User: What shape does this take?
Amino acid sequence: MSSVTLTAKAIRRSLLNVAATSVATTGLFSSAVMAADKQKVERIEVTGSRIQRQDMETASPVTVISAEAIRAEGFTSVDELLQAQTSMAGAALGSSSNNGSDGVAQVDLRGMGSQRTLVLLNGRRMVNSGSGADSSVDLNSIPVAMIARVEILKDGASAVYGSDAIAGVVNIITKKDFDGFQLDFNGSTSSESDGETGELSGLYGFNTDGGNYTFGVAYSKRESVIQSDRDWTEPGYSSYIPTGSLDGMVQNEAGEWEARSTGYDYTTSSYYQTPNERYSLFANMVQELDNNMVLTADALYTKRKSNQQMAPQPASVMLDVCETDSDSSCVTLTDAMTDAGIAADDTGRVEYRRRIADAGPRIYEQDTDTFRISAGLAGELDINNGMNWDLAYTYGKNKADSTVKNSINATNLSESIYANQDAWFSGDALTDSIVDDISYTDNADGGNEQNVFSAGLNGDLFDVSAGAVAFAIGAEYRYESGYYNPDSVTVAGEGTAAQQDPTSGNYNVFSVFEEVSVPFTDKLTGEFALRYDDYSTFGKASTWKVGLTYEATDDLMLRGVAATGFRAPSISELYGGDTGSYDYLEDPWGNEQDSQILVRYTSDDDLEAEESDSYTAGVVYSPSYVEGLSLTVDYWRFKVKNAITRLDVQAGLDACYADAASDSCEIFNIGTNGDLTNLTSSLTNVGSQDTSGIDLNLAYSFSALSLDWKINNDTTYLLNFEQEGIDYTNIIDGNFGAYAEVRNNFNIQAGIDDWSVIYSNRYIGEMEDLGTGDDVDAVLYHNIAGTYHVSDMVTLSAGIKNITDEEPSDVSNGSDGGTVPEVYDTIGRQYYGGVSVKF
Assistant: This one.
């Protein structure tokens, strides 16, 4: 993935021209005035600061991904391009997440959780979006067609932006200041002729006297990939089989009961790539008004239709055993059954399991609408030092309707078994009338709403010998609400899927903040930020940030930042009803034979805010004797305390198994002899994270062999990742993803005039399998792409991802297909191409 690290000379060379054509790129508002007689921006803002400045140097490391790089490398969604960055870890939900994703796409900077990465759109908050009462932004709501660039701040930024910016910030800058009409079509397919994607977008803009208006429309569609359609996929067997089993026994063709010998291969109906269809409208405007005031606004609407597919519903019901033959609300055990060892347990019941294949696979569908509009008004105060003021309002709303087709009503299922024992126990296919009686479509709805009012003042306070002391102060009011209403059958606990309660709640927060930039000398500059937030839920939070940049020589700059941060509990964490989740776990008692065990998740309205400390320190080296070369090295560390978390259930199971008197047995509601009927995982403020590492970036632009060359290499060395005191460094697991010690992206581009060719590779290092302790192989993905400008109007692009068709590494506790699709490429070789026409 081609990227640029924003620092020192590299910043000046690469981005000042870009910034000069953008308005309100970050923060509340950029005071750049697009008057006809002004041809350049006097001051700009960069991600991570609200202070407007004449250059783009800050103490914090920022990486920029351009729209050209996104298109050249064939990314059709924001989450794909972000997850390719070496600074990402864990297992963020995206196109490859089939189980429990609800079609959302997220970003997970440093692997600290998507809820700890703040996502901004043009420098302002984006509404959380998904299936309802969500704690993160759904990146599907932002079409690639509208992106001018993506800026990734790899530093804690709560003192500037408030809650959620613990691990950093992703700021998506949209296209603006466009004049003309542009039509783009992009598509791709795999070497197996499946998983096709397509996107059609149009962009239209025009200039006015002192302004610009840009409008866009985009349509994209992504097709599915079935797991079993990849020859490296091993069958994933489950004990829930279509013929049914009673107390672990099945009836053969001779009518005899015997132990189950085979399982059901769920890979034949599960996805590696989930289908998705999106419709988007977006607009940007900037208009100079009278009295040196500027009005800006941007609007976005996205409709997403997505679905996931999983194996037919696995149903497990406990059936009462008849004491007399005349009882109709129980099952009668025949002599053949009892001879085979089928018997009632201590409660007088016997377990019946069946994969309800006759109803068809479970099809999860989402229809979501996300709307956002943001407007700002800015101007200058009529005083000598040129103070600037700004006002802004942002409104966002998300609504989602979700269904699960071919769901099974457990109450009706039990009654049907009692009434039709021969039909259920024979192993034969169920009749249509029985299927109609037990199946239903699960319907749920939810949504999120956001209102943000802000006001700010910025400018120069006074001059010192090394320059002007600049500042920014402001205040903000934010209101968030969310809800989620499960199907009534699910709420009543009558389904075979996990029971779930409704969620509904809201909160508001009032904030004040300030920043100061002080040039102590010509070479040393300090950056200071303070923020105070008052929440209606948990109360008050104060955060600060101190950053220093020191230009040791014309070639070398030193930088460092120390900051505190926080994350307020989300609506779902505060007010979410009890929710069941089938987690990949191992039962040490051996009572549960399946890898997925039901865990009851609970929320808590008394949760406090998370607190964090972050540190970065780095060097930027741009040697004058090698034109076009820059090197950055940054050490980073993030520490989170009072983290809102669910304790490690597997660790709790193991501890309780080792000692029945352990507190873990009570904490996780584990019953006598490993009874997991009420296995519970509660949210609590006892969690912690401690992660550190080193980022390296090398960028080199030069001319040779009559060609223009660009080389870029990003490396992240993970030194440590601990969560709740458990070391996950260089570990991979299906539950939480991967924390590889080494991730590397290399990119080399050659071109001249109208064409360019890019070769890139992406490396994920060898890791340890948490479940087995075995080594998990490293992978290296090779990609190639080319761009050709046919004329001033027409540009063609094409490429191949994963040229060598690398297979994903095996993971014993993999979340799907024996691997972790959020970490490794499970689609294989893909071909893509596009055409852009500009009038």
User: Anything to note?
Assistant: The first strand starts at residue 4 and ends at 6. Confidence is low (pLDDT under 50) at residues 5-42.
